[in-house]
């Protein structure tokens, strides 16, 4: 029987990915995600024989990745803020830019027993990581997708946190329960439908459109939340939105029109793009 090593398996996977116009490095990511084999282990033990079951699993994963499926969906998880988060077809893959949102909120909001809502939570990445770092604050998470909330609940269990998780559109789960909050955080769908041609093809084909697109040039859900603040946000409460890189001016103008006393501010991301719109609400 031919000796089939991890090194050979990786070389073949990289070649297959390159032929499919995919990044060769995905092979190493899958190897680590599926079997916890990193580059150091590969250098030291790469000549070891691959068990048949592992070889079959890896080859199937590479085939999916070569066809354009994001490697996080292939392995079933992605990394966010240093933690392993389950993802599936019901959820977006958490992005690095959203890690910056979590970091910013942690810097700005004290852990003093306030109530914080994560609206449109998806995998739970934002709300769960906030809860993970707070001891006194109460975190409430909502999403319209029951499938996404099942993923969020699994991630909560894995992280060892117990936020309150409710199904419903935007603020509805809060208003139905009479929950008022001191802080709102949201990374809602914000891509305009006419921007789909600018998107990476794998994102458009594989990530849930419910969590990607919104009407009114991607601004519809922000405007609904801005209009609905009196029903859920305490006077003087804070709001943090992750936004698209071309949306700050339009949203800032809308906020000033609806709430003239409120002064929106902007924080750019690591790439210098507009990313976090935040404000203290004054009615």
- CATH topology of the largest domain: the name is Rossmann fold
Structural class: alpha/beta
Which CATH first-tier class of the largest domain would you pick?
Alpha Beta
The CATH superfamily name of the largest domain is Vaccinia Virus protein VP39
Summarize the amount of helix as a percent range: 40-55%
What integer is the average pLDDT? 93
Question: How many runs of DSSP E, i.e. beta strands?
Answer: 9
Write down the overall geometry. elongated
Low-confidence stretches: none
The N- to C-terminal Cα distance equals 75 Å
How many individual domains?
A: 2
Given the structure, what is the number of helices?
13
User: How large is the share of residues in beta strands?
Assistant: 15-25%
Main beta-sheet annotation? 7 strands, mixed
Q: Rg to the nearest angstrom?
A: 21 Å
SSE ordering:
HHHHHEEHEHEHEHEHHHEHEE
Largest sheet, order of strands side by side? 5-4-3-6-7-9-8
CATH architecture assignment of the largest domain = 3-Layer(aba) Sandwich
Write a brief caption for the model:
The strands form 2 sheets. Strands 5-4-3-6-7-9-8 form a 7-stranded mixed beta sheet, sandwiched between helices. It has a two-stranded antiparallel ribbon with strand order 1-2. By secondary structure, the chain is α/β, with parallel strands linked by helices. The protein has helices at residues 6-19, 26-35, 39-45, 52-66, 71-75, 96-108, 125-133, 146-159, 172-177, 201-206, 220-227, 229-232, 248-258, and strands at 77-80, 83-86, 115-119, 138-143, 164-167, 181-186, 233-242, 265-268, 274-280.
């Amino acid at each position: 029987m031919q000796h089939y090593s991890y090194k050979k398996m990786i070389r073949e996977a990289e070649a297959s990915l390159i032929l499919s116009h995919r990044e060769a490095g995905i092979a190493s990511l899958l190897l680590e995600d599926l079997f916890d084999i990193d580059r150091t282990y590969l250098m030291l033990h790469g000549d070891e024989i691959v068990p048949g079951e592992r070889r079959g699993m890896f080859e199937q994963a590479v085939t999916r990745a070569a066809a354009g499926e994001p490697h996080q969906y292939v392995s079933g998880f992605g990394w966010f803020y240093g933690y392993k988060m389950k993802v599936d077809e019901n959820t977006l893959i958490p992005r690095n830019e959203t890690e910056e949102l979590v970091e910013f909120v942690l810097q700005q909001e004290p852990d003093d027993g306030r109530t914080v809502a994560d609206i449109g939570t998806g995998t739970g990445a934002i709300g769960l990581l906030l809860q993970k770092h707070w001891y006194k604050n109460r975190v409430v998470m909502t999403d319209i997708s029951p499938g996404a909330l099942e993923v969020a609940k699994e991630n909560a269990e894995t992280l060892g946190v117990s936020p309150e998780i409710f199904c419903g559109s935007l603020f509805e789960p809060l208003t139905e329960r009479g929950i008022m909050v001191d802080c709102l955080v949201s990374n809602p769908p914000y891509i305009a439908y006419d921007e789909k041609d600018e998107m990476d093809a794998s994102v458009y084909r594989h990530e849930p459109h419910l969590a990607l697109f919104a009407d009114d040039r991607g601004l519809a859900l922000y405007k609904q939340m801005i209009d609905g603040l009196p029903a859920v946000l305490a006077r003087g409460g804070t709001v943090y939105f992750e936004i698209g890189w071309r949306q700050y001016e339009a949203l800032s103008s809308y906020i000033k029109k609806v709430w003239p006393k409120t002064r929106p501010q902007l924080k750019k991301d690591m790439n210098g793009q507009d990313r976090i719109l935040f404000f203290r609400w004054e009615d």
